[in-house]
Structure formats: C-alpha cells, structure tokens
User: Fold these one by one.
Assistant:
Number 1:
Amino acid sequence: MSVRAGIVLFPGSNCEQDCARALGSLGAETRIVWHQEKELSDVDIVVLPGGFAHGDYLRTGALARFSPIMEAVCAHARSGGLVIGICNGFQILCEAGLLPGALRRNVNLKFLCKWTSAYVDNSTTPFTSRAGAGRSLRLPINHFEGNWYCEAAELEDLRASGRLVLRYAENPNGSLGDVAGVCNEDFNVLGLMPHPERACEALLGSEDGAVLLGSMLDHVGAGIRSVPV
Amino acid sequence: MTTAQAVYRELGLTDDEHDAIIERLGRVPSYTELAMFSVMWSEHCSYKSSRVELASLPTEGERVLVGPGEGAGIIEVEPGVAVAWKIESHNHPSFVEPGNGAATGVGGIVRDVLSMGARPIALLDSLRFGPLEDAGTRFLLEGVVSGISSYGNSIGVPTVGGECLFEDCYRQNPLVNVACLGVIEERVMRGRADNPGDALVLFGSATGRDGIGGASVLASAEFGDDAAAKRPSVQVGDPFTEKLLIEVALELVNRGLVTGLQDLGAGGLSCPVAEMASKSGTGMELDADIVHLREPGMEPFEIMISESQERMLATVTPERLDEVLEVCARWGLMASVPGRVTSTGRITVVAGGQEIAGVPAPALADEAPVYHRPSVRPPWAGPLQFSPSGETAPESLEEALLALLASPGIASKEWVWEQYDHMIGLGTIEGPGGDAAVIRLPGRRCAVALSVDGPGRYCQLDPYEGARLAVAEAARNVACTGARPAAVTNCLNLGSPERSEVMWQLSEIVRGIKDACLYLETPVTGGNVSFYNETSGRSIYPTPVIGMLGILEEASMAVGPALGRDGDVILLLGKTDGNDFGGSEYAQVFAGALGGRPPRLDLASEKALHAVLVRGAASGRLASAHDPSAGGVAVALTEAALAGGRGFRLSHPGTGSWRWLFSESPGRAVVSCRRDEAPTVEGLARELGVEARHLGTVCGDQLDFGPFKLSLERAREGHRNGFTSRLSTAAALRE
C-alpha cells in the first residue's frame, strides 16, 4: 500500500498542487485537505504547503494557526505522525507552537526567489535519511519572511540536540545560524524555507528535493510511527 | 461653458461625443448614463483612434482558435491543448502609484486570461523607466517591481520573464506592460449573455470608490504637472481575493455552472454588462442597490463605473444559481445577484426603485465614434535618420565590452527577477534572464516559449522598421529555445493620438507588425493600444511591445543560452553587417546619441535562421543558442559564457573589429554544439541558406577573443553590478 499524504489547502495556499505532483511522482497517494476539515486520521504524512494562507496581510501564519484543520495537524504530530511545513507551512508551524523560533522579513527587505545550497546537518531524521551527513542539497527558496530567529540559549540547545537539520551554505535571508530547516523535539515535525517539491526533476534544475520527500516516504513505508530520540 | 458641458467634459467626453449620445438616445442622457458612456467610449475601452489601423493586422491562422476582441487570444498548442495569451499596459496607474498600479496591472491581465476559462500559469513584464541613476526612477522601479512581486507571488502565478530598460523619454512616463499565459482546462469560455432569463452573478471583491474614471480620466489623457492629483483614480489590489477568484471562476467554468463569463476591468461593471449583451444581441436589467458594496452611500453612477479590482460577472441559468453561490461561499468569496439577462437589447439600471439608465447595449459597447485622426510624418523624422548614429571606434575593445556589459540595458536584472516567484507550477524549464521563457504545460510533454520585446530606439528612428525588428527579435528569441514562433500579442505604447505625428507612428508600426507577422506566419491574436504616454507635451518613443508565443512539442528538448561543455564548437549563424549601429546600445553608451537608421532586417534570412534553430533543437544537436541583440556578438558570447560558467577561445578574424563585435544586425544566433555534430549543424544551415561561421571553442574560464581577453569573473562582476551599483548611486543622491 502506498504512503498517504494529506496536503492542507488554506484559501491562499499556492504550492499544494506542486506538492501533490512531487509526492505523487515519488509514489505517494495524495489528498488535498481543505483547511476547514477536521480529520486527518486517514493520512500518514501531513504537508503544510507554501503560499499565503489567508493572504498574510498580518504576520505570516498568524491567522492560519486558527484554521479548524490545525487541531488535527497538532494531534497528528502528537501521535508521532510526520508533519512537514514548507515555506508558509513552516511559518504556520512556528505560529502554532509546533516548531521553535519565528520567521522575520529577509534581511534585505526583499522577496527572494533563487536557488540555494543547504547542508543536511542531521541525516538521522525521518526527513533526511536518504541524505548522507553533510550532504549539500540544491533547493530553491521563495519567500519574503524566511529570516529565522530564536533566543541564543535556545539556539545552542537546538544545535546540540541536532534539531537544526538544514543549514544554508550561503545565507540568503539573514537567518540565525544559517538555519534553513528545523525539527521539533521528537523529530517528526520539520519546517523548512526551501521548496523540496520544486526540485524533484532534473529538467527543473535539481532532484535533491526528492531526498527529503523520499526520506519521509521511506520512513512511513518502514512502518515506524515514532522516532527514538 | 454651460453646466451640462462642465459635467460631461469633466467625465472626459467631447461636445461631439455628447451630441452623438443624444442622437443615439433621442434625449439628454442621465448622469449615470453619461458616466457609463464616458468610460465605454474612452480611448482605453473603445480604441476609437486606433481601430481603423488595427483592422489591417493579420489575425488568422490554423492554430488561432480565438482572435482579437475577447479577453485573450486562444492558440492551439497541439490537438486538445490550448492556451490563452494576452498583453496589456498599466502605464499611467504605475506612474501615479507604482506599487498598486503595477499590481493591478497583473491582476487585470490575469482576469482577462481567466475569463476565457484558462488557468493563468505564467506572467511576463515589459518595463521602461527613465535613467537608472535618477532618484525618481528608483522610486518607480522599486514600487513597480514590489507591486508585481507581491501580487504575482501571492496568486501563485510565476513571473517567468520580461525586460526592463531605461531611457530618458520614459522619465515622466514609465511603461508597465504585463503579459499572461493561461492554459484552458475544460472549455473555452466567452463573454456572452445568450440566454434571456439567466441570472447575473457578480462575484469577488465588494465594489468601492477606488478607480472611478480609471479608463477615462487616467488612461485616456496625458499628464501635466498634476499627476499626483489623479491618485484616487488608481485601483487598489488585493491578491488574496484574486487567488480565490481564480479558483472560483475555474471551478464554475470546469463544472459547467456558468453560461457566460467576463472580468471587470476598465469601465467597471458597465463594460461586461454592455459587451456581453451586445455580443449576444440581448439586454440586461440591473438593480444597483443589490450590488455588494465596500462602503455605504455610493452613488449609482459610481457603482456602474467603479474599477474596484478582483471582480467578475457570470451569467447563470436559474437552476444552477444555488450551486454557483455555494462555490463562492465555500471559498469565502462575496457574490451578489444584481440582475438578469433580458431580450430587450437594452441595459437598464434601477436604483431606489427608479430607472436611472436605459441604453441600447450596442450604443455603449460598439458605437463609440471611430476617429480617422490626421496622420503626418513629422519634419524631424528625416533629419534624425541622417544624423550621426554614434559610430566611433573605442579606445580599447576590452573596456568597450566591459562598459556595455555594465550598461543598464544589458546588465543582469537579477535584482528584479529574484523578487518574482518564477518557479511555482513546476513548469519553468527556462526562467528569466535568457532569450525566452520556456513553460511546460501542466501534465503535458509540450511547452510554450514566450518573449516580450519592444525596441523603442529603433522605432523612434523608423517606426516601420522598428516594428518589423520587434517582431523579428521576439520570434528569434523564441526560436533560440527551439520553439516554432506561432502567435503574437502586442501592446502599442504611444503618445497622444491628437497629435498627427503620433498617428503616423501608429500607422507605420501597425504596417511593420503586419508585414513581419505575415511573413513569419505569426498571426496577431490580441493586444492593446496605450495612448497618451506623454507628460507636459513630451512623448515617449513609440514602443510596440511584441509578445511572441512559440510552440515546443517536447519540453525536454528546449535549448538554453548557456555554453555547456568544454570542447564544444561555437558557431555564428547569420550575416553580420558592420554598419548596424543606429539605435544600438553601443551608440547609446558611447555617443549618448540617437540617430541614423535602425539595423536592416531581411525577413527571408530571419525566417530561415528560425528554421535552423528549430530543427537544430528538435534533432538534439544544439547545446546552446542565444541571439546577439543589444551589444552585438561580443555581448551575446559573454552572456552565453556567464550563463554556463564556462569560457571560450575564439579564432575568427572579426574579433579584432569593433564593428563586427558590437553591431546589432538581426537574423543571427550564437550556437554551440559537440565538435562531431558541428558539420551536421553547418550542413543544416547551408541547406536552409543560412551562413554558419566557426567562432571558436568552449573552454576554461577566460573569455579569449584573440586580440583581447578577460576573465569570466571580471565579466560577471561588471554584468552583475552594472544594475545594482547604479541603483545605490540613485539612493545616495536621494538621501
């Protein structure tokens, strides 16, 4: 049976179809989940895709955390299910308290859409098992608020516990510690600014996104529902 | 002046037009009717000054499913696969309020494409500003780019290409032309109201007081010193609502819930009401009190002409009405049902229980006066062609190349396009920065290549030749990717039609586009004329922006500009004329003068070149292709090297001649291929009558022209910093 991924569609999400295509091409079965739904028990993986959930005229993700589906997302995470938040999805997960830190405006105060290289600093998570440690992935970013921040003490904790999973080779947005992606304490929730779904095909410039998305499918496929810390 | 005169003149109507309205109605119009006529008969909506000329453009071809006159042209890419393609200007709003002006320009063209039942999948922008060093330019540029970025990125449509050029004549009148590509999902929709009894559903943003008179007061008049006072005529964009509108409209069309669909743009509600009814020979009955409003107390005339964004009008059979409203509600989009289609042939508007307007639909939609305005070649046109074209030998070839690479017209516009999401949709095979964007259609193997080109300097020197060159270059850009040039949308940016020289420029440009499009077999499927691009009597260069669409059967066979492999052979296809410097970037940079004749275009060689590029790409033999345009072969070679991160060694006798290096002869392309494939490529060129010359070999990290060389790094620095360093200078000057 193939792995089932639920991709949450907020009214202003715009990367949901791209996520569905990328995951589909890797063998997953996908379902678009409207943000007013309340049930996620039929999926193995929850994806919060990129976009502008409710227009993001307020702080990004500030409204989305109150969408009805978010309770189910939190419950899925609590029970050890995998949750990945990409770009706007990362912002929402931070707002919802599932991930540490916050995302501020890029240091140059401009929207940035470009290719970046990011190192996998922890390859033992369900999101990175296909990458060898220290592997560099070519992934595009596309955001205005990707400048991740947390308190200094917390940063040390996160680093020591291996939760700063992805790190930019060349920091594009001012993100603290060059952080591109961060995990929760149980390593079943990942938020990242780069878009792996845009990098699953050589014709589009890179297949490295499949390393991250494919790792998740491997993890679920292997039947591991919670990750030993 | 009488009171009545004051009223209609303020709305932008002339005395003659007012008389014509009285004649159509058989009575004096009400204020609401006057307001509706003023927007529908505006230059912007009615094309009253350009219609006569535009009629001569070739609009038919076997791939054209829908030609001009609808929201967008529809082109068949392969059997069962069709795309919508259209360009429009938003120049005046962008000058008055750059952020919202540009943003709503994007919103407007997206809705045009959407109204055809197509999902918007790519945007391109053609931008013109005054000199980059100007503080004012920086204000406009930053505003326009952030407007496009915030709007396009939010709605999830990638901005995949375009151009951004700088010239003194655009200082007080920037150009913001936006093109959109959409793909038909289920069916082609039309802006019609065929069935009396159908309900009118207005869905999207609430109607407010923004954009009152946008089409008439703002778009159809030139600027004086009072540009800022026109700010209330600029609309305000809300991309989140546009995103919802896209999803709602496509769901309605794809599920077959609507019988007709049109967007609300210039002219507000009056426009779809009049046009849909007129096209179908029906009428419409409307109650202004039912329209959902943003603020209380709006006058009925304001409701009828408000240009509030993100709205569409659909006709719906009564039995599907509930389903339509359910779709809107599910997406959280407001909708109201302010009226219905009738068989009266009239547009009737009721407010407060009183009929406040009752007008035959065709009078509004089709019977605007058609003007045969005087057209005279201006006395300066001849002498300009005989004035010096800026051909002076440079002191150093190397320094000349570096200066060109860093010039605003050629320097990398990364700063601009990095602010645009150019990847969403997983279709961007070639993005910004190359010759043309290549977009794979969703779920298909085929792709389209898109390019926008508008050589203002060439057109100022000779509008006929300039327009032919614009079409040729746009087609060449598309052909460089391997795509067959197939259809054109165009945006003609000009000064005031009330001046005879502007009308002459229009007719010369239309004649040029016609000749080139006929020869290259690229019919015109739609477009837009933007007049009154002048401030305080100073007009822009006539600037026809040609949006070319090309077709690639196999997206993976697309060819890019980047030199690929060490050891590959570099060839120059086409002939170089060392005298093509009129209007060139070289003349601009080194002489700062505009004079002479534009480069001489031979359409037969141009077409043959495209055939070589298309066949070369289809056979998989070309590793790269890039056309020499601004800055000539020297710049084209450097750009190809920078794109691939690889140097070259040339061994062609021309490389010591500044004329050969920098001349802008059309009909050429720099291509590279594997050494063992070179004879085949040359053979193909020979067979099609195109000259092919060995230039040299891809290798190392030096740009070795023979007589001079520079490092890839130095070239990259100049090319990358040319733009941003001038921007910082402008910022420093302002502070």
Number 2:
Amino acid sequence: METREGKINLLRLSNIRKLFKKAGGEDHLVLNGISLTIDEGEIVALLGRSGSGKSTMLRIISGLVRPDSGEVFYGGKPVNGPVKGLAMVFQTFALFPWLTVLENVELGLEALKVPRAERRRRALAAIDLIGLDGFESAYPKELSGGMRQRVGFARALVVEPTLLLMDEAFSALDVLTAETLRTDLIELWLEHRIPTKGILVVSHNIEEAVLLADRIIVLGTNPGVFIAEIHIPLEHPRDREAPAFRKLVDEVYEIMTKRPRGATGRSDVVPMSYRLPTAHVNQLAGLMEALAAEPYNGRADLPELAEQMGFSADQLFPLLEALEILFFAHTEGGDVELTPSGKSYVDADILRRKVIFAEHTIRHIALAAHIRRIIDERPGNRAPEERFLRELEDFFSEDEAERVLQVAIEWGRYAEHFAYEEGAGMLSLENPESSANTL
Amino acid sequence: MKLSDLNKSIHLPNLWDIIAFLLVMGLITLLAWGSRQMAVPYTQGQEIPLSLDPSCLPLYALRTVLRMVAALIFSLIFTFTYATLAAKSRRAEELLVPILDILQSVPILGFLSITVTGFIAMFPGSLFGVECASIFAIFTSQAWNMAFSFYQSLRTVPKELQEASVLFGLSSWQRFWKLETPFATPGLIWNMMMSVSGGWFFVVASEAITVGKTAVTLPGIGSYVALAIRDKNLHAIGWALLTMLLVILLYDQLLFRPLVAWAEKFKFEMTESQDSAESWLLNMFLRARFLRNFVGSIGQIRAMVMESLPALPRRQTTFKDLSPLQVRVRQIVWYGLLIGGLAYCCWTLVTFVNSGVNPSEIGKVFLLGLITLVRVLILLLLASLIWVPLGVIIGLNPRWATKVQPLAQFLAAFPANLLFPIAVFLMVRYRLSPEIWTAPLMILGTQWYILFNVIAGAAAIPTDLREAALNMGVTGWRLWKRLLLPGILPSLLTGLVTASGGTWNASIVAEVVSWGDTTLTATGLGSYIAQWTEKGDYPHIVLGIAVMSLYVVCINRFFWRKVYTISQTRYRLD
C-alpha cells in the first residue's frame, strides 16, 4: 500500500476516461481525466449533476465497468473485475423481493462460502446493528422505504467491506427518514462499530455531501470532469444551521452553478450542439413567479430558494440553466436574479406570456429557430422529427439527442412555433384540424 | 423459512398433514401406474383395444393427463436451456430468437404428422414411440411460448439487482437460481397456465391421428371421442365432455391455483397487491407443519451436502480483451456458418417439396391459404362484434367480472375439438354447407381469449375517467367511441393476437370433420394439410405447413405487431 503524508491509500484512480460506444458513429465521452484517492478513515463525497458520470465512476471503482484508459488501484492492486472487500448500497435498494430480510443479508456471505452457522450469526448481528431487529422474517415489500434501505445497509455491512460505496443511497427516501439513516450511519462510523475503513458517497444533494463528507469532489457535466475539491473541516455531528456549515453550502452552490467559460460564449444564442436542460415550461413559470414575489423580489440566495421550494439541487439546476439561456434570469455567485424580460413575463397574462416565450426561444435557442425555419421552408409545412434527431446525433448520443429534441419540442409547442403529433413523429405548423382527426 | 420454525424442532403431525400425505401418496401411485402403461409392448399396425364404456373414462383421462405432465416437464427443460442460452450469449441470441419466433407460427398439428413415424421407428416394439409422438405434439404447443417468456424475463432483470449479485460475488450458477429464475417465475407460470390451456386441444387431437399407413391411437380422451365419432355415439361424447370438464377443473385446482398463489412471492413489486391469488391447496400444505418441516429438512440436508463438497475453482471474472482482428475473424466465421446453414436448409426444403409436388400446385396452395386467411379474419371480426360489447359490460361491473373471468379462462382451456362431433351431427342433420358452417368451429375454442382479455381491459379502465365522462355528460355511442373502446384496445389486441394464432392451428382439424362415415370438407389450407396428412404424402404436407407458417409469420410481423405497438404507445392507460 502506498502512503502519502502518512495516510494509507484505500483507493486510487488515475486519469480515468470512459467512452460510451454509439452504434454507428462517434463515441460519447462520459468521463475525462478523472483522478481521485480515498484514504483510510475518510468519507469522500462525489458531487455532480445528472450527466456528470458519477454513477459510471462508482461502477468503474467497483470493477463492474472498465475504463477506456486510466487505472484503478484498490489496496495497491490494479482493479481488473469485481473487487472483493467492496460493498455498495443502491439508490433503489436492489433487494431481492423473494428473499426475507435475513436471507437478503445472508446472500453475500453465502457467496463467500461462509459456513451456515456463522453466516446466520453474522447476519443477525448486522441486522441488530442497523436496527432491524424483529424484521428478520419479513419480506422487503412489507417494509417502508427507510427500513428497506436499512436492509440494504445491513447487507453491505455484513460482508465487512473495507470500502463502502453509496450510490445516491438516501435520495429515494423522504427527508426525515433520510436524515435518521444518515445520522445512524455516521454514529456507527464515528464509534468504529463497523470495520469499514472508508466511505465513498455519490450524491447530487449538496447539503447531504456537506453533512457527511470530510472531502467533496465536484464533477462537471458532459463529459464528467474534475472541477473542484472542497475540504470540510467541521466536527460531527454537524449543525445545518451553523454559519460555517451554511458558508460551505453556499460555496458549493457557487462552484456548481459557475458556467465554464466559453460554454455559451458571450453570444446571445446557444448553438445546436448545446445540451438543453430538461425543464418543463410550467416549472419555469412557477420558479419565475416565486422569484418575483416576496420575499425575494427578483433576487434569491440559491440554497435558501432550493429549501423554500422543496427542490433538491439536482432539480433546481436545470431550471436555472434554462432561465439563463433564455435570458429570463441570471445566476452568479450563488444568487439568482430575474432579468427585466423575466419580470415582464411574470407580469403578463397567459397569451402575452406565450408571445414573450416565443420571442426568447427563437432569439436565443438555435435549435428552436432551426426547427421553425425548416418547417417553414418544407412543402406542406411539415417535417419528421427523425430528421432533427439525425442532426442532433452529430453532437450527442442517441438517448441524449432524443432528450434534447423533446425539450426543444416542448418549448416550441408552448410557444406555438409548431405543432407535434407524437404517434407520427411529425412536426408541423399549428393546424388543429389535422391533428384532431387521426384515428 | 422463519426463524421461529427453526427453534421448534419437533412437531407432531396435524390433521392437515394427514390429508396432505394421502393426497401426495395417491398422486404418486397414479403416476406410477400410468407411466407403466406407456411402455407396454406394441407392434405397428396393432389395434389398441378401446372401449366406449364410460367406466373406462377415468383411466383414459389419467393417460391423457400424464401425457400433458410429461410434455410440461420437457417444455420446462427446454425453456431453461434454450431461453438461458439465448439470453446469455449475444451470438446465440441472433439465431435462437428468430427460430423461436418462426416455431411459434408453425401449426402444431403439422409437427405431429411429420414426427410421428420417426418416433415410432425410435422405439420399435413399444408403445413408447407413439406416446412420444403425442407428447412431442403437446410439447410443441407449450415450449415456444414458455421459452419466450423466460427469455424476455431474463433480459429484463433489473440492472441494480444484477450489479448487486456481481458485487456480492455470486457465481453465475448462484445468480441463475437466486436472481434470474425467481425473477422470471411469475411470468413463466402464467405462460405455463396459458400453454396448458392451449395444450388440451392438441392432446385430444394427437391421440387419434392417421398419417398414411401409420395410425396413432393412444388410450385417452381424444381417442375415446374419435371412436365415438366413428360409432356415432352421442352418449359417449357426452361422457367424454363431462370427464374433460372435471380433468381441467382438477388440473386448475391442484396444479395451477397453488402455483400462481405461490408465485406471488416472486413478483417484482415493492407494494403488496390488493387482490393476491389464493389457493386452498397451498394453504393446506402451509398448514401441514410436519410435512413442511420434513420438506424443509430435506432442503437443509441438501445445503449441508453442497457446502461440504469441495468448492469448484471459481474463475475470477475479469475484463477480457480481444484484438480487433480476433473479433473480425469470429464474426466472419459465425456469419459464414449461419448463411451456409441457411442456404442448405432452403435447398433441402425446395428439393424435398419439388420431389413430390408439381410446381404449379404452389400457387394453388397460396390461394387456399388466402381462403383460410379470409375465414380467420371474418371470424375474428364476428367474435369481436359479439364479445367486445359483452366483455365491456361485464368488465365494468366488478361483481360480474370476478365471476365471469375464471369461467372464460376455463372455457379457453376446454378443448373445442371435443365439441366438433355435436356440431357436425347438426350440420349433417340439417344439411348445412360445410364451407360456411365449419368455420365457426375454428374459433370455438379461441374466442374466449378475446372475451377474457376484454373483460380485463374494461375492468382496468380507471374509475376517474368514467366519472369524468359521466360528469361531462358523455354517454351512449360517444362514451364507447371516446372512452370504452380506446380503453380496452390494448387488451383487445392481446386477445386477438392469441386468438388468431389458435384459429390458424384449429383450421387443420376444423376444415375437415366427420360423423360416422360422413366427412365434411371445407376448401382451405387447413383441409389441404389434413387431407395430405391422411394420405401420408410428406412433400405436400411440408408445402402446406410451410405456406401456413409463412402466412402466420407475415400477418404477425406486418399487421399484429404494428397495430399492437401503436395501441401500446397511444392507448395505454397508466
């Protein structure tokens, strides 16, 4: 094992690159040049928005997926397949519904060929430790979400992993349950009641990362790249309301909303190759209304806004990005501010809002303008959606192209730039007669 | 197993134990007796004595049931191997899945006529060969469907569960039994149930069939009915119907209800469903504590033996590297073999058919296919016109739906060919034209698929939507057009697809029917196949079957699948 500043390396990644192969064409880069170490005795959080490849990274670390270049060392040895001594807790729990709690927990030990009696003893101990006593013979479907994830933890801890991986382990739970489970885990960790030597938390929840981790690694999106590393020097248990805690949260927000220079350029138009964020028109309108109203009056602090509106960071960021590229709002230094056109949108009535939205999409979103122009030019004023998908696939993977086009279509439909028939996959100029009579 | 059971090690047998024990022992004895009868000496051409005495019927029924059980076991073995191979190997998948798709479309009675002489030659001097031919025919009516279901389940095992089992170090053998098979179980059991329902039709048809000089007559309900037809004995037919009814009822209660109730546990859902399936038999066995502990301890002994065995050296899964050249070479070899094999098959087929069939006849056979196609489509339309309105009305009334639904499923299982003699009797009596009046026989057994799917679809229309329609004053025809018909469309299509396949199959037995020495024949591809089968002329049989398969494949591909996809994307209510 290597040492660095007297610490023992549990895991070391160097210069990881991962491509996803596309059927007929260019590959799609998911992770680019990521390096990372986890030392003994630390909790590291990987923080990033969807599309930052953090789940892929977790799978590379656990040996489920192979990187295209770069190396992974675990306990000093290169990783070349699924690794022993690693256990993962899944977002969806990944419990076997046909096995009881006890059988689920025993499963990993069975695979390790632990003798029957010892298996039972260790499984019962793990169940006891995680607070599942009395549920041994229950099936997962009889349990609440929080209890299910406890089974997930018991199953991971029973194999006494050196490194515990958590893939959004708390994000499928309600706020209160997630909080209790986090607290319990931290207690077990601090009191050394589990032999685990390191924890890697993958999350999109900023507060969760600041609450749990000794160190946060922020990943940027598309492809996933290293953006920042933040040390959290706070003592456990951490107080969410403490000024030092709030300051760190603010700092992370600022890092995560900072747009890399040159992404949109200084120009007013986002190009065709821009990944439009998934943001529904109603959500955008709702967010702008909230921003315009008391207590924000057009300007808000991001963590405060997220909490107020019950949004996780991952839900809020795409909306902010959409408002930004549409020139309805501007995000800077962890704050968001409505632009004058954003304000006039909020003040307008339903029809007038559509007109404003239409102007902004045509002016600022190249894809929307492009679709409209093609439809105008084509005979019959109709164009198949396939056509635009092909164009977008020059820039994105198939799924991503479809997602981006869906966003553009939703915006364009609302703005009444064009109509869309889903079954036929046809875009056309607004013409209600033709769409009402199909089948 | 529950912990509490482990702690209490001694249990005295209770009443349920005694009942369950007797049931199990009785079943084993019957199976043993029946299986011995299957391998009695037999020389080809020998007449197997059959009696129309109703008291013989229970034993005949047992023989029929045993054939069904044997076919089911073989179907399961086939499913586990074929579907697993297709799901695990990309290369195998490219070949195996299309083959399965085609096999599904080949009329099942066609298999019988082609394989029967081969099987008899395999076991000279024993009845076993004839039994095999019959079992194989039933097998072909079940296996493809089950294999498809299993393959699809294997392909849709949730990704996280796969990852979890890899991370926890389960071997692929462990993964197959701990993850993949349990996940596929509910779907497999449902398909098994449907397949067995369809299978009764073929077991009846396969017990009495003549291919040229080879006459297959096996003691069973099917051959009993065949004899009754020859003797024009309506009473005997009545008894046979009654027996079949009882057999299906028992099969349902003793095998499938318990299986379905047991499979509830493997459903991949995280909420407990409201109306989970129940079975009195399963409940009884669960209450029979002694028996359950006995079975449990067998499991424990097995586990102990397995653990004491030296572990096989396990290959550590690692990422594999193949050079681009290797990949290329493998591809070329694989596709070369594939195309070569395909060309050889085509050539064999063409030369074989050519050896006994005048090429000019091929066009005629296609025309006959068209006639049968028209019959099938008209029948489906008529059946829909009757069953859709009725099914919707029943489905919207939950109280009726729960009563009619099992009845419809039961009727779908009932082999309609047992009813043919009655219809033919009437046709002969009133001098009805076979061209028109044999047609309803084709759909007699398969129409129920339409009914019970429509009932299920109508029952699933959300109450919200019905209330909203009511609230807006949408009633009468408009309500049907805007809500009820679109709402049931996906289920209706599921029913129609199943019914369509079954109707094609039935055409082989329904276009030629007889009563005593009167034989009524309708023009069509089904009667073409049936007639040449009786003469034992293989090139003609193969041609007929090939053309029918072609029709079925094309209709499935170019019609049903398209319509089904549209209905799934546009009319799904969830």
